[in-house]
Design goal:
2 copies of one chain form a homodimer. Chain A is α+β, with helices and mostly antiparallel strands and about 230 residues long. Helices cover about 35% and strands about 25% of the residues of chain A. The first copy, chain A, has 2 domains: about 140 residues, Jelly Rolls (Sandwich), CATH 2.60.120.10; about 80 residues, Orthogonal Bundle (Arc Repressor Mutant, subunit A), CATH 1.10.10.10. Chain A is built from 6 helices and 11 strands. Chain A has a 4-stranded antiparallel beta sheet. In chain A, helix 1 crosses helix 2 and helix 4 packs across helix 5. The structure holds a DNA duplex (30 and 30 nucleotides).
DNA sequence: CGGGGGCTTGAGGCCACTCAACGATAGTGG
DNA sequence: CCACTATCGTTGAGTGGCCTCAAGCCCCCG
């Protein structure tokens, strides 16, 4: 229950797991890079030259409409791989939510290894499928769930991904959460307030991004599953 | 512009293109099956024993919430492949929208071929990526677009996929469209009425599912792109 | 011709959005 | 260390877009 999946080295899908340093293949190109809070890592429709893994920090991937409406497709936390495209271009813009360090690997070298190594190839497919499954679940949320259900689903996802001892230190703002859930930041704030009053969650000290899960069962009852 | 992508044999991603009958591999298991209008092809969480390709007809893939709210993730038209899972179970329920004939292939045999054939393996990844891209675009629609923008995007998608000479014979009902776009059927109907009044679309004879595209440019201006 | 399902249209309601004010917090520079 | 400021979060009031409920039409199909 309290396994720290936030620890990069404990996750199954590290870049290493892609097979880059396995058996016959030496590590081809595993450099690191750091981004300050709010800095863009890559832009939508830019050529996808690298694949990334979060070492420390958090990243948001989003699309923008011409008038500024934003839809965040995913949050990438420590250990997560992102920027993995099959076509030549990125389909999202990626930004550091907080100061973030990432590992990089050249996309071309990954492709070349995948060409000859079925294990790497299968891991690529597996990761893409995981992303697809997340997107499919998120479509149900965006298309059919109420604001309370969306926020509950978000908290359950974050609990699974970053909670330690029931405490969630969320890196993202209310606006980020809103743009992930297809809501406004006010609606997110109201939903969290309601859950606070209901005794489902609490806040640590004065930091409203430190959320404590008080009643997991009641929270789960708000998040309808398909 | 008027290429009939609805023709199964002209599409790049037929089951054949997966490599099942290529070079060294004989056709393993390509049988057919027909489903009457409204019949379920497979259910969510059922073991994924087969992969399907639509030969004639149309299929909807959807998720249900316990109280009956439905989100359609995709429509599958002639030539489309669906039911391709990486995990062992289906993540959607699939139903025939109209009387539909599908080709089937055993999932296990496909996996085995992919294991040894990089071409098949890469095609699997390519198809999964296409599905992912569609889902990502649809998240933006569901999370951030207005009802008019959603219906416009739907018509543009259908125009690309099934229009011949500007006429779209839609197989799905208003309710299906609504559940695809995260709206109600009344809202879809009102949006179509508005477009009719605006001279963007027309209806053929008395069949409201036969939509004529009258002003592609004006329609495109309603569908904001990211 | 009668029944039923699908579509449209209207009237009214509600949930989430918009606009606004305010408090709290973190970051900045003196 | 402390003002100063910008940013973030909460809360309230009012609006509006989409939903709900309902009626009626048309077509398909027995």
């Amino acid at each position: 229950m309290f396994v720290r999946t936030a620890d990069p080295e404990s996750r199954p899908n590290t870049l290493g797991a892609l097979g880059m340093e396995s058996a016959s293949n030496p590590i081809v190109n595993l450099s690191e890079f750091s981004y300050k809070k709010g800095k863009e890592i890559f832009g939508e429709k830019e050529p996808a030259e690298y694949v990334y893994q979060v070492k420390f920090g958090a990243v948001r991937s989003y699309k923008l409409l011409p008038d500024g409406r934003r839809q965040i497709g995913a949050f990438h936390l420590a250990g997560d791989i992102f920027g993995l495209e099959n076509g030549s271009d990125h389909r999202f813009t990626a930004e550091a939510i907080v100061n973030t360090t990432v590992r990089l690997i050249k996309r071309r070298s990954l492709e070349m290894v995948a060409e000859s190594d079925p294990v790497v190839s299968r891991n690529l497919l597996s990761m893409t499928t995981n992303n697809l499954q997340h997107a499919e679940d998120h479509m149900l949320l965006l298309g059919r769930k109420t604001s309370l259900e969306r926020v509950a689903a978000f908290l359950i996802e974050m609990d699974r991904r970053i909670a330690a001892a029931g405490v969630m230190p969320l890196p993202m703002s209310r606006r980020d959460i809103a743009d992930y859930l297809g809501l406004t930041l006010e609606t997110v704030s109201r939903a969290l307030s309601r859950m606070h009053v209901l005794g489902i969650i609490g806040f640590i000290s004065t930091n409203q991004r430190q959320i404590v899960l008080l009643d997991r069962h009641q929270l789960a009852s708000l998040d309808l599953q398909d």
